Structures
1.
Amino acid sequence: MKSLDELLNMDEDEKVKYLYSEAKKMNKRLDPEYEEIIKLNPEYIFHYAANIIKGRWLEAEPYIMKNIEWTYYYIEEFIKGRWKEAEEFIMRDPYWAYHYVNEFIGERWEEAEEFIVKDPNASTWYARDIIKRRWKEAEEFILKDPYASVWYAKNVIKGRWLEAEEIISKSAQASVWYVEYIIKGRWFKGEPAIFKSEYYTKQYLKLIRSYKSQL
């Protein structure tokens, strides 16, 4: 085991990785001064808690909250429910806020909606899984993204979304998705973008032939 003086010559990531590997070899917790170094890295806080402490590492929790991804994994592994202390941090990231509310809250999380609403993908999932109907406040943001607009039409509106068709039609990929999931037939509005792509032209024509064969 290297001394603290020897560790000074290593960069931060090397120190943490070395100390974690030493703890794994010994299969026991390190001395407090070494644990202070591990606290500098949220990923290794998680691994150290999971594989060495085998439970919550209370002293390190303020440090893991500096990284939202590892905070979420920590909640999944150890908290297994709402973690009030982390919510002010989590709610500010729409992607993780959606996953948190979907897995641990299960109903509208109004404090987080001001952040979720502005993200086209997260707000689409939130409308589908949490609100379970159209979310009017989010639609102006979803309409800026052709792919999210298709998924919103498919999973929330469950039919054509006329206001979104202009932006969807500008993307070959989104247009083909819209034809596949919503139109289920020829869609003239999307063809100019589709026909610029050899790949999506083939996909589109294949879809059209399949719909004709079903008539």
2.
Amino acid sequence: MEGTAIARIDDLMDKVDSRFHLVHLSAKRAREINGYFAQLGEGMGAFVPPLLTTDTNKPLSIALEEIAQGKIEVAAATEPEVTPEPTDEPA
């Protein structure tokens, strides 16, 4: 099935907690894959290569397939902590 499957939205949504998280994760991974392809001739090795063999060379399609197949570890989205700003008023 590797290399021929197309990532389905149902499979992708099972891996993440929201569509926003899916978009953010796939865009980030697609940029990493694109960076890998861009630096191939330079021999720098600064980026992680695609984690699976596919028929496509589109970074976003590769990223979505990696997420669907569980090759990318999805961390739970956390809410940012909001700390109240100090006020000049006495307590």
